[in-house]
Each structure stands twice: as structure tokens, then as C-alpha cells.
Amino acid sequence: MAEADEAPDTEEVEGAEGEAPTKKKLSGKTLVLFIIAPALLLILGGGGAYMFLFSGGDKAGEDGHAEVEHHEEELLDPSTLVFYELPEMLVNLNTSGDGNSYLKLKVAIELESEDDIAVIEPLLPRVVDRFQIYLRELRISELSGSAGMFQLKQELLRRINLAVPVTVRDVLFTEMLIQ
Prior knowledge:
- It is built from six helices and four strands; from the N terminus they run H-H-E-E-E-H-H-H-H-E.
- The protein is an alpha+beta fold.
- It folds into two domains: 2-54, no CATH class; 78-178, Band 7 domain (Tetrahydropterin Synthase, Chain A).
């Protein structure tokens, strides 16, 4: 019986000394952290780099300069462009304090043809009304920076295209004063 007790002790010692090492099983956290995550990052990074370099992500020509894409709007003949100046608007902006803030705005719109002017002129009260309603709810903080100006431009373009039966291509600010 003493011999049976000694046999397991010698096997453990031999395994501990490295003659017959036992393999450890990796835990789930270790497996994910050190094997799967780096492999996944390597695959995704390599795929992204391949897409950028070889699928037209960089539109550089042979000389290394980027090619300019021309859109339909840029190819329009300047002699065919039609602009119509809307009446000047002065609105009281929405303020949370006691002070008053005003917005003075002059807008020109870009139309597709001169015939569209005859369609828009009788509908100007509707256009001005929709602009006034929107502008009176604006705060000064919403008009600050280029993002605020872009948002205002997009909203005015959307509102005028809903108010008139012709297509307005663009809204252009000719004067804007906040006081």
C-alpha cells in the first residue's frame, strides 16, 4: 500500500520537472484577448488597406495628383444659369432671455430656366411665409459656424421646393446679418 501512495507522487514530480509536461487549456478570456482579437484586427485592417489602395479610394493619377470629378452642376454653362433675388427678410430670432435678436437675410435662388420666374413670382407670399415661420424659431447658437449656415441653407431649400411647383436648384445667401 505504501508503494501505491508513492507512484502518484513520482508522476506529479516528473510532470512538474518538465519531462512529460501537461498542456494547459486556455481560458475564454485569454483566447479572445490574445488570439482572436488581434487576428480579427489584422484581417480587417488589411482588408481596409486593400480597399483604399487598390479599389479607387485614392483617385490619384500617374503623376500623383488627385483627379477632379466633375458633377453635372459644375458642367452647366454660366450663360444658362438663372438667379432670382427674393425680398429682404428681417425676423426676430427666438431668444430665451429678455434681449431681442434679429436676423436680416437676403437670399437668391437658382432656377432651371427663366420661365420658372413667372411661376414663382405669384407664389412669393407663400415662400416668404414658410421662410419666416422657420426663421423665427431659430436661435443664435443654431446659426453659428459653417455647419449652422449649411443647415439653414438646406432647410430653406427644402421649404421653397415644397412651396413652389418648379425645382429650385440652390439657395444662395447674398446678405446675412445677426444683431
